[in-house]
Design a protein that fits this description.
This protein is mostly helical. The protein contains three helices and no strands.
Length: 80
């Protein structure tokens, strides 16, 4: 893919973004406010998922391993 095709593709994606969100009818200052709010919300979702999802996955794995039959380490230490 050469540079011209990439540039046209990115321009097409931006045009699709404008049409889908409906911000093509807004004034430039309204577009900047809308884009700022949208991108900050997306950044917060990405940050939150990066910080909290691994913790929840670990807790879920510990919970389900206890249900399936794995014994906690403290119980194993008492048996030995």
């Amino acid at each position: 893919m050469n540079f011209k095709n990439l540039k046209e593709y990115l321009a097409w994606l931006y045009y699709q973004y404008l049409l889908i969100t409906g911000i093509y009818v807004l004034e430039p200052w309204e577009k900047s406010i809308f884009n700022s709010i949208l991108f900050s919300a997306i950044a917060m979702v990405i940050y939150t998922s990066y910080v909290f999802v691994p913790i929840h996955v670990r807790l879920a794995l510990e919970f389900f391993s206890g249900i399936i039959g794995g014994q906690p380490e403290s119980t194993m230490a008492l048996i030995n």
